[in-house]
Amino acid sequence: MKRFTLLIAIISGFSSTLTAQNIDLNFFDRLTTDTAFCRKSAEQGLPIAQIIMGDRYESVNDYEKAMEWYSQAAMQGDGMAYYNIAMLYFHGKGVERSYETAGGLMLEAINKGYENSTLHRYLAYSYLNEGKEQHRVQAVKWFRTAAGEGDGESMYMLGMMLRMGLGTDVNKQEAFSWFMRASDKFAYADLAIASCYGNGEGVTQNYPEAIRWFEKCLKSDAPEVVLEASYSLGICYLKGNGVTKDEERAEEYLRYAAERGHKGAQQFFTSEG
User: Fold this and answer.
1) Domain count of the chain?
2) What Å distances lie between residue 148 and 87, 116, 123, 166, 178, CA to CA?
3) CA 134, CA 121: separation in Å to the nearest integer?
4) 0.90 cut: is pTM over it?
């Protein structure tokens, strides 16, 4: 999957580079399918080939070799190579994890002309993970940039920072609007929308709407979202918030969550067994 993503990124993000270097798509296709040909091209100094070689080594967890190839492309000023090295530092693959180093390399990638919503999102996380208030301000800036480019996860994260006042003033109405925009793009956004309706944050409190959004979350592909929605629905049925009070149904939801490790739900069953 990562290799496929890389190839799409190269085609979409480096179309001008391919044109400038007179690299047509047939040649590019050969680079991605013929390892010996790609290696020879990389050894001859072709940045795209060096990046593809780096990705091949990264995909088999040989991070030292991956860094070696990415670095050769970066020394030629290739922005995508800077980004790939940044991601090694971000995840601590073959190097000591350093969000500061990762962020600096991503900024350099941007300076070299390589940027997209994914880079902007990871740059935001790099600042956020550094933990200081001035870094949170930068995180908000880059989440907002990526959100404006249509990145659902960044829309959600921008909403969360606005909701909690991290790196920015609290603005729960704007937070709610970003959660709504992220709906169907990032599963956690639907959970946040349900919570906002239940608590009256950024929107008029409306328990039935909260229930509707929690029920939507039950269909999510993200296990954590399903788990939290099950717990929340259990509480709603236990208290009669937005639904007719139903202790039996509440127990079903809470037990489902408890059996899958939700600590809040487990507290309802601590005396069993």
Assistant:
1) 1
2) 22, 11, 15, 19, 10
3) 17
4) no
- pLDDT (tens digit per residue) in 162-216: 999 999 999 999 999 999 999 999 999 999 999 999 999 999 999 999 999 999 9
**String of DSSP letters for 183-238:** TTT-HHHHHHHHHHHHHTSSS---HHHHHHHHHHHTT-S-HHHHHHHHHHHHHHHH
Q: Two tokens at 53?
A: 């070689």
Domain carrying residue 253: 187-273
pLDDT digits 0-9 by tens, 244-264: 999 999 999 999 999 999 999
Tell me, yes or no, whether 272 lies in a domain: yes
Question: CATH number, domain at 223?
Answer: 1.25.40.10
* Residues found in the chain: 273
Q: Which two tokens stand for residue 116?
A: 């997209």
List, in sequence order, the alpha helices (H) in 21-171.
25-33, 35-43, 47-59, 63-74, 79-91, 99-111, 117-130, 133-148, 152-164
